[in-house]
């Protein structure tokens, strides 16, 4: 398995990814597009807004495909 932090550091901006981070009591995931990064953190644009992820808390990271298109409303 490759290093998840190295994946984040080398992925092109705009890559859609999921990032799993350690929190008190377990883990949490963020799914979104990579918008910014530096040596300590990255910023993902999720459906709920911008999420800052500390790279020292990253447990897993990988690219994911684009979301499926929304279904047409029922009439």
From TrEMBL:
In terms of superkingdom, the source organism counts as Bacteria
Record-given protein name: Ferrous iron transport protein A
Which species does this protein come from?
A: Microbacterium murale
Top-down, what is the taxonomic lineage of the species of origin?
Answer: Bacteria, Bacillati, Actinomycetota, Actinomycetes, Micrococcales
């Amino acid at each position: 398995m490759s290093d998840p932090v190295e994946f984040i550091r080398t992925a092109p901006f705009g890559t859609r990814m999921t990032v799993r981070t350690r929190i008190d009591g377990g883990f949490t995931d963020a799914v979104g597009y990579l918008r910014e990064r530096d040596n300590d953190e990255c910023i993902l644009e999720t459906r709920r807004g911008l999420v800052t992820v500390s790279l020292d808390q990253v447990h897993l990271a990988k690219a994911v495909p684009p979301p499926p298109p929304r279904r047409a409303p029922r009439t």
